[in-house]
Fold this protein.
Amino acid sequence: MQQANPSQPTRVIARHPGAHLAWIGKGFLLLLAVLAIIVLVRSFFDNPQLFIQIVISGLQLGFVYALIALGYTMVYGIVRLINFAHGDVFMVGAFVSYFAVSYFNLHLWPTVVFPGIPVGVAVVIGSITVILLSMIVCAMMAAVIERVAYRPLRTAPRITALITAIGVSFFLEYFGALNFVFTARFIPYQRPFSVVTWYIKDGIHLVVAGQAAPIGSITFSNIAIIIMVASILMQVALQFLVRRTKTGKAMRATAFDKQTAQLMGINADQVISITFAIGAALAGMGGVLYAIAYPSINTLMGILPGLKAFVAAVLGGIGSIPGAFVGALIMGQAESLTAGYISTPMRDAIAFSILIIVLLVRPTGIFGEPEGEKA
Amino acid sequence: MTTTITATDVAHQAETVPALEIRKLVKFFGGLRAVNDFDLVVKQGELAGLIGPNGAGKTTVFNMISGLYVPSGGRILLGGEDIEGLEPHEITQLGVGRTFQNIRLFQNLSVLDNVRIAYHAHAGYNLLDATVRARRFTIQERELTERAQDFLAIFKLERVQDELARNLPYGEQRRVEIARALASNPRLLLLDEPAAGMNPAEIVTLMDLVHFVRERFNLTILLIEHQMRFVMGICERISVMDFGEVIARGTPTEIQDNPRVVEAYLGKGAVRVE
Amino acid sequence: MEMNPFSLVISIVKIVAVLAWLYGLLRVMGHASKWVKIAGIIAAFGIIQLAISLPLGGGFTILNDFDTGLLFQACTMAMVALGLNLIYGFNGQFSLGQWGFYGLGAYAAADITFRWTRGDASGLLVAGLGVILVGLVILGLNRYLQRYRSLPVLSAFTLFLIGTVIAATVALVIGAPLGRMLSPLFGTSNSPGLLSSDLVLQVVFVLAVLIAGVFAAEVSFLFGLPVLSLGSDYFGIATLGFTIVVNTLMVNTDTILPFPEMKGGRGMVGIPQLTTWFWAFVFLILVLVVMRNLIHSSTGRAIMAVREDETAAKAMGIDVASHKLLSFVIGSLFAGIGGGVYAHYIGFLSPGTFDFITGFNPLIIIVFGGLGSMTGTLVATFGWIFFLEGLLRVVLGYLGPEAPTWRFVLYPITLLLVMLLRPQGLLGKVEWGFLHPPAAKQRKPEPPAIQPGPVEATPVAR
């Protein structure tokens, strides 16, 4: 029994080395990149004010996405799960703050408790309280979800956990859409503090309510600044937590090798819950800030930002915290530029086209490391 | 340099061409040099062993031979033909069969299906035939199935042909994996720790099986193993690896007496095995 | 629909009857005799046809319009779900893109017949020529690229993309003027010409559905080529992205894309409703037979081997990348055909039908029915459509206007329960009738050519 089947032609294997044809693929991408740069530069020179305006609005989006993306990347880094329900945590954050402000006037508590307090301080403290409340509720919710839905499936095939995450996501969205919970309608959001806009043209001026900013000026608002500052602060705080604290070290160890970390005495379950909680708290904060910036909320509002933040995390290298931040900023700009120069509906398609391109060119992302495979 | 290689090129070499020749093989994983300047020659029909402490790079070498890793440097010659850079399935089709450290059967497929897959490259019908159930499909599929069943019978596995692979006991799974690797009609068989998890009685049975396989199928065999009784009892020539390099070569007797090997691997006070 | 105990019972009886019919059909298709098979298939078709059209007096039929609608929905969803089961259940690739291919198929087929019924043959010609030329380019380029070792995926993708664009442009350049030349043959509404006849329309319909399927398959080839090598998590996300991009394009068909008749977000209307029970049945059987013949063959085993263990499959000489691509392409072909049949059943298309949230339905169905079981998919599809869409919708209608939202709450709860309690699905890996793999008879042991030595003494441990 020598040949498998003597009547069959023997297998022929090719020998031309194909590796040197890599220039075809790379050249194509280079061409696309050059085209994109040319288009961008032209747009800038055509109308610099518009370009800068778009960039600012892109930054606002990007920093919000960064808050969400951090949660995705941390959770993936530690349990290799794409938590589809993360975008809905963002939504819950917005809704919690909505209820706190509209029904309980939580943002006004400093004036109630300390009647003489200056208005500015009261607003700041009240708003921060609202944000903190959202963060805490979201963190607790995420910890519960992790305990109930994800932990039992930790040994199951990854796809099962993924499908479960999708299920949790649906559940949050539609359960919230039931009338006795939230509602399916778009709800106008009441802000805990008022949004003030300035415009830049021969100096910085305040935009008076009811009037439009003069043509050719660049506008920005206090919420944009707050978003940027908050996001950067959170990123710095997170970096500090992960690099300098014991908890952070435990998180990194568990992400690297859960079993060994456990053998070293780290309570992996606790670390994982903390990771989920922190990620959710950040997303909750993002939800509140997003709602303040774009004051109309709805139980499905978390889907698209969630997905875009996920793309951002992949773009930056999933599992990498600075990567998620950088990726989110890029995603924000891409979306803003598309909405401004092409069309609003296309901006969602762009996000996913970016995803596909990233996966083609460098699947591990900007800051990611390739994973090897052992036989 | 020819533009194509075929399995017959590989199979019908002159006696003097080694079945497998590896020259200065190197593998980097990032900054880690897992395999360094590795040389090996396995003559046709030989039963060779590759041993060394854990992490020495033995499985990495196997993975490079079977194409799962791309070497960072060096050459691998199968029957005198270069095979680096080929896809793993192409290398298999050129005549390399392989088993794995952790048995890698197709768990949810039957034993018969596991073996029938080995014949996929030589199924004798194409996709269109299968879709329309042409005569060629019916005939070839039946022949293929019968060949697979006869093959299982050689290894006394015909009674479990419909059993799902994951339901078999460990020793039987091992046998199925070896049978499956042989069903693709290789010239070179790579066995990665075939005796893992076996007690001394099972090891003796395995040794008989390996001898039988080598005679019956006229093969060259290269194996990795930690069980010294097995290696010393069956291999004709042994290479010893440590930290990615070859530290010794020779017959079992020579290896056992080599102080470097004893030091790196067998430990002090090792007993000479007949 | 009247909500009283009688109609409730009738609904349950209908569901059970449909499932029994399904079982009978599969059993008879698995019969050894060719004549029994043919007779059985015709009978199965006939039973339902009678139920649809046989008047019982008073204008009633056994299956009313609502039921027939459910039947068509079930058939088209079954095609999509079977395709997804091939990609995910049998080949192990987690794809969320099936809905996007479904939508592509629906719009493509709809456009062809829409144009035809308005005297414009260019849709059929350009699309038909396009898929043929692109198909040739893909096959030819594939053969040519075989001779290269370690060709980077990105470069291969670029070459295929360029080839496809060229072929599509050629098809457009040739097909459009050809279509204009044929327009006189349509005649006018007063004196319809040769090409306006019903018979020709039927032929165009069948061609449109097939072209739609091949179109979806070709797009899936281009998309799958670079993306399948990424590993399951990333592949899933990329396919999700694909569905969303396709959905966005649907909303922009009249702005960015040059298809004003599709009316973008407002939806395309005026699609000739050419799907009859005959065609739905025929296409379903076609998809089922092709899939079953594929699975019960060496290629099918190779596809499943890739699911089980990619590394071992490679070691057994299976080209993992091309088998993943093959499953993906065939699965998308089925989705495209399903889309074509769907479009001509419902008569209009709206991008809202094809959003990615609804796209989870086929996934839920195949998981529920049992991954890797074709019967499970069929049962789950028909059960899902008839039970959830039919019965439950009526029951929940009593809950008032919130009912549709309650459905979306129950779906994920059901999914979660299934994942946690019975992850292998309702039917696990069980198959009915002709979908059951053929058993290989035990061989009488022949005397071995060479006497094996000590192996004779090997005890068969159990």
Observations:
- The longest helix of chain C spans residues 153-182.
- Chain C touches chain A through 58 residues (CB under 8 Å).
